[in-house]
């Protein structure tokens, strides 16, 4: 099934979106909600000229007549009873989220937002860089995105790539105790139409997923061997604003991230995956390093591990 590349316009900016042609409108609204911070129940979607409403259409992207290159507009549905309540909650609980602006002339001071270590840290971190706040419900949605992408492309996502049969992987990634890694980051980069730069504190390197796609925006995550956290910038212009999405043609954030990676590496702010101890929550077995954990998973089909 081919993908559709869309442009999303809202009050906070313009975003690229890549979604499957068979993506339900309901799932599209969930994705738009993450990018715009508009509650799903309050989103009004329009496209075409003159703009026509599609937010109440049942069915898929294809059913609505959307195709690559189309622009969709997200607005707040003023008829929604939840609009005022949601607005008050957002203003009181989160910082204003700036998506795309100049970072200033100097190398910026990039900051790390610590998210819960609950096996869904990758997805919580992605939710933060997309929406500017910690949302622990991001995991379920993103796990489903990944499972769908893997199931729909069994050629690229073969057993040799996944380390397990395609069907088994799809079931595994839906499990809230399963960890995300490079495969999952790559799929999310493609789905959101955004480059994801992952800073590895053990090697001091930066991996840029989606670098070959020429995406206009980039987000940053930091990885210490077992845990992901999102990176952000406090606005140098307006107190109380944060920025998590940056233009890919501005390398100052990459320079700042490299400085952070070098500092973390020199101070050993990482977990050696060949030495850390894990406990299997299914049988209680204790293992040293990811190799033993992978072997244990192959032999027993147990996938629920915690650092011990």
From TrEMBL:
Top-rank taxon: Eukaryota
Keyword Hydrolase attributed: yes
Localization per record: Cytoplasm
Residue stretches spanning the membrane: none
Domain OTU: 110-234
Cellular component, GO annotation: cytosol; nucleus
UniProt keyword terms in alphabetical order: Cytoplasm, Hydrolase, Metal-binding, Protease, Thiol protease, Ubl conjugation pathway, Zinc, Zinc-finger
Entry-linked InterPro entries: OTU1_Ubl, OTU_dom, Papain-like_cys_pep_sf, Ubiquitin-like_dom, Ubiquitin-like_domsf, Znf-C2H2_OTU1-like_C
Catalytic activity annotation: Thiol-dependent hydrolysis of ester, thioester, amide, peptide and isopeptide bonds formed by the C-terminal Gly of ubiquitin (a 76-residue protein attached to proteins as an intracellular targeting signal)
Domain Ubiquitin-like: 4-81
Entry EC number(s): 3.4.19.12
Single GO BP term: ERAD pathway
One GO MF term attached to the UniProt entry: cysteine-type deubiquitinase activity
Pfam (any one): zf-C2H2_OTU1_C
Function noted in UniProt: Hydrolase that can remove conjugated ubiquitin from proteins and may therefore play an important regulatory role at the level of protein turnover by preventing degradation.
Name of this protein: Ubiquitin thioesterase OTU
